[in-house]
Amino acid sequence: QVQLVQSGGGLVQAGGSLRLSCAASGRTFSTNTMAWFRQSPGKEREFVAAINWSGGSTLYADSVKGRFSIARDNVKNTVYLQMNSLKPEDTALYYCAAQATIAAFTTSRATSPRAYDYWGQGTQVTVSS
Hints:
Elements: E1 3-7, E2 10-13, E3 18-25, E4 34-39, E5 46-51, E6 58-60, E7 68-73, E8 78-83, E9 92-98, H1 107-111, E10 118-119, E11 123-128
Parallel strand pairs: 2-11
Antiparallel strand pairs: 1-3, 3-8, 4-5, 4-9, 5-6, 7-8, 9-10, 9-11
């Protein structure tokens, strides 16, 4: 089994930057699709970004495109989310996720929470005005 442990997050002013990390453990790291989701109180879980097994393909939500970037280091067994030009509406609980099997990197599979088998514990990101 795979465990995902998140780090980073915190409080930052609008316009600032923050980097989230998600380290995989429990077995040899799988280079399957990994992603970041976020959720605010009273709202549904929202897709943020995804990255395929090799890191060669990425996908972003329109709301974060151009500001956020996702990357992975398969040697360190870690995926990152670099967040720049943060806005108050980015405030949420952020989760990293990973798929258990190798499959085609499609929009439907990459953006659906139901396609992911492993989840991190979540980390709070708060952006003040």
